[in-house]
Amino acid sequence: MAKTIICPVCNNSGSTSPSTIFEADDLSLKDAVKTLTDEKEIREYIDKWTDSAPFSSRGTFQGKPVWKCNKCGTGLFVRLFGKPQAIPSKILQDLRNEWELRTGKPF
Ligand SMILES: [Zn+2]
User: Fold this and answer.
1) Which bin fits 95, alpha (ψ -120 to 50), beta or left (φ > 0)?
2) Is residue 102 part of a domain?
């Protein structure tokens, strides 16, 4: 489920992008994907779309969803209720390393 969050560091606000294309609220996006048949093409499209969103999903840490603010680069724990929490830099460093190791993509 997409949720509107505000970055506690830079006040960037926006909807968290869905973790899969099928959760997307954006119908134009779903229609665009329907025209793509090649799996690689779909992946690239989703990646591009996710990276242009205000926040990007960066997996979970101890069961908590991790998001990255695309404006200031802060890592955030997004809770179901209440405001997102900025992730302490020490934990964020570990998360970043793990993400880059696992996905081969920059955090
Ligand atoms: Zn921010």
Assistant:
1) alpha
2) yes
